[in-house]
Design brief:
Elements (H helix, E strand, L loop, with lengths): L8 E5 L4 H13 L2 E6 L10 E5 L5 H11 L5 E4 L14 H29 L2 E6 L11 H21 L4 E8 L28 H11 L11 E4 L8
Length: 235
């Protein structure tokens, strides 16, 4: 994978806020060119940042966006996300469909375009932003299902592509300080702080993603790597 500044190009979804914006900014600082896919207006101004307004829940629009950027892309980071919470008895089919379209279907459509090009060039990295909730949490069954699906997809794609020099991994943060925490759809639910005593910062997630996209991470693939602040440790 090339190392010179400006020679590498990445697609980052959800680049207008939260984890996605932090990842896009970190990659720009690392010398990448970044195609930012988001429905919201861009919040990054940089000579190597190319924003594209796209509704990632629209399958045709998502595939078209991927095709428009695919020729020179050697990394794909799927950070776009939405959270809807509800207990049994209050589950809404439209919430499950929204999360599946954004988390799973969008990732699949973009990867279906860019991964074959990466394997053809024997050069590529894919990182999907998951969640510790994929292991299951009361009141978040629909969200957990969509995030758990990312792990199965990533491991499958990793098995298909590692012999061609392409890696695929999932990064799963614990509760992260983003605008998602202020979403009215969360109702009055308060995130649980990990033993670290604070929420995970988006820049911490971005730092790990940066490493996974680097040549030094060429042997890491098919993994679900947690940034948990100690939440996964036995207590």
């Amino acid at each position: 994978m090339p190392n010179d500044a400006g020679s590498r190009s990445a697609i980052v979804t959800g680049s207008s806020s939260g984890i996605g914006q932090a990842i896009a900014e970190r990659l720009l600082a690392d010398g990448w060119r970044v195609h930012g896919f988001d429905l919201a207006a861009p919040r990054i101004e940089h000579g190597r940042f190319k924003p594209l307004l796209v509704d990632l829940t629209d399958g045709a629009a998502t595939a078209a966006a991927a095709r428009s950027a695919a020729d020179d892309v050697s990394a794909f980071v799927h950070a776009a996300g939405v959270l809807r919470v509800a207990p049994l008895g209050e589950l809404r089919a439209e919430d499950a469909e929204l999360m599946w379209r954004l988390h799973v279907a969008a990732a699949s459509r973009i990867a279906n375009v860019v991964l074959p090009r990466m394997t053809a060039h024997r050069d590529g990295r894919v990182v999907l932003i998951g969640s510790r909730v994929a292991q299951g949490k009361a009141g978040r069954s629909q969200y957990a299902a969509s995030k758990a699906a990312l792990i199965g997809m990533a491991r499958s794609w990793a098995a298909e592509s590692i012999a061609d020099g392409v890696t695929v991994n999932v990064v799963s943060p614990a509760a992260t300080q983003t605008a998602m925490l202020d979403d009215p759809a969360r109702k009055t639910e308060t995130p649980n702080l990990p033993p670290l005593g604070r929420l995970i910062r988006p820049d911490e997630v971005a730092a790990l993603v940066s490493y996974l996209l680097s040549p030094a991470a060429a042997a890491i693939t098919g993994q679900d790597i947690q940034i948990c602040g100690g939440a996964s440790l036995p207590r």
